[in-house]
Amino acid sequence: MTHRVAIVGAGPSGFYAADGLLRASPDLHIDLIDRLPTPHGLVRAGVAPDHQGTKAVARQFDRLLAQPDVRFAGNLEIGRDLSWDEVRAGYDAVIVATGMVIDRKLGLPGEAEPLVLGSWRFVAWLNGHPDFRQGPDLSKVKRVAVIGNGNVALDVARLLAKNAEEMAKSDIVPAAAEAIVAAPLTDIYVIGRRGPEHASFTGNELAEMGRLARAVSVTDATMLDGHPPASDPTPERLRKAKNLEILKGFAANKPGSKPVTVHFLFNAAPVAFGPGDLELTTGTLPIDLAITCIGYSGEDFPKAEGVFAVGWARRGPSGTIPTNRADSHAVAQQVAAWLKERDPKSGPDPLPICVDADGWHRIDKAETAAGAAQGRPRVKLTEWQALLDVAQGG
Ligand SMILES: Cc1cc2nc3c(=O)[nH]c(=O)nc-3n(C[C@H](O)[C@H](O)[C@H](O)COP(=O)(O)OP(=O)(O)OC[C@H]3O[C@@H](n4cnc5c(N)ncnc54)[C@H](O)[C@@H]3O)c2cc1C
To answer: Count H helices, E strands: the chain?
Structure first.
């Protein structure tokens, strides 16, 4: 008898947990369960579609699915199709890797769709998540406020600002790309409530905002006098100092010198949304759409014996893909130690019929073939039924 481990959530932290378990204790069966018929979590649905280099980590993850003791179990939502108690009863250990993708709210008056949208809602649409097929109506959108000072805010601003050619090698959903290019966009405001020395942008992503074909990035030079806090550890201070340098370059640019101007506004806290405007502590901005990029919360899961959490579900919604690796490997060691002390449970295979790795490979093949026809990495299937039909060989 071998131990059975259920990993709930087939995003980066779930895959790294499987990898860690295989390294620590090869004699076990792992079921990598996801509510979607497709694996890879936010690598597929969150990471910007024009950052294909980042998405390439998915190939490493797929190699794990070829291991004889690892099964992919897609289209299986725990808490809906199987209860958490059923999962706990069927497996010797459960690893929760469900992430966190509920858009946090600012909690301000007027914060409602269609004017105000959360970043998850927006990027999930661009990335073809089957729960978010309907994007915002951009046909009359000229001015967009992107609220937040992290890399997700830069992703959102950049994806709105790029032209069709710049998006040609991406796997953005074609309808979303068309809607963005057809929008009468003139101004994007990236809004931070504190000074630029506090922004959590990373240098490469910020610098990319200075190399856009149809958009010019600008900021107010008088906002750039601050210094990174002396209390920050060295790499943080260096990152922030580099950001300030890049922003000084933007301050020298001329607003309106390209069709779209991206304004970096700092020390401007949102106060309220009106019909067609955003009140900031520094004044009122006419806008047609606001996208909030201020973080996420997650669903509850049972905290019980034999249940271990990894990734965003454990640490909260911060950290990049590589951050999850060390974290998941450490938890995998704990799980291996826990299993060593226990005899494997007996009983029938707890897994119901679901989309297996072959099903996912059929989806993958169909999407990459559709992409190849257009010179793109893939064209995603975005409908639940289409995904399930293709997974089943239809
Ligand atoms: C918009 C955005 C852009 C990002 N860009 C980058 C980037 O460029 N580079 C980088 O390094 N990091 C980036 N990140 C961060 C990175 O995506 C995360 O660090 C990482 O995805 C977290 O991994 P995870 O496995 O914990 O969660 P997730 O990736 O969210 O995976 C969770 C998985 O669990 C599944 N699930 C949830 N609930 C259930 C359930 N009840 N039953 C079954 N399955 C379930 C979900 O479908 C999902 O597949 C970005 C994040 C966001 C939001």
So the answer is: 15, 16
Torsion sign, CA atoms 195, 196, 201, 205 = positive
Pairwise CA distance, residues 40 & 171, whole Å: 15
Tell me the angle at which helices 12-24 and 57-65 cross, rounded to the nearest 10 degrees.
50
Centre of ligand 1 to C-alpha 295, Å, is: 12
377 Cβ below 6 A of ligand 1: no
Using the structure block, give the residue that is written with the tokens 């105000």.
116
Measured from the CA of 36, which atom of ligand 1 is nearest? 47
- The span from the CA of 288 to the CA of 301, in Å, is 38
Which tokens is 359 given? 């099903």
Q: How far apart are the C-alpha atoms of 328 and 326, rounded to whole Å?
A: 6
Residues 365, 370: Cα–Cα separation, whole Å: 9
Residue 128 has a pLDDT of: 98
Q: How confident is the model at residue 271 (pLDDT cuts 50, 70, 90)?
A: very high
Q: Looking at ligand 1, which residue's alpha carbon is closest to its atom 10?
A: 320
β-pairing, 283-286 vs 277-280, is: antiparallel
Angle, CA 130 vertex, CA 128 and CA 135 arms, to 5° = 60
Tell me if 57 sits within 8 A of 12, measured CB to CB: yes
Give Cα 68 distance to the centre of its chain: 29
Distance 46 CA to ligand 1 centre (A): 7
Smallest CA separation from ligand 1 atom 15, residue: 320
Domains and CATH numbers, the chain: 3-101+298-355 (3.40.50.720), 104-295 (3.50.50.60)
What is the pLDDT, as a whole number, of residue 394?
Answer: 78
Alpha-carbon distance of 207 to 161, in angstroms, equals: 14
83: pLDDT strictly greater than 90: yes
Ligand 1 site, residue 12, Cβ cutoff 6 A: yes
Enter the pTM of the model: 0.97
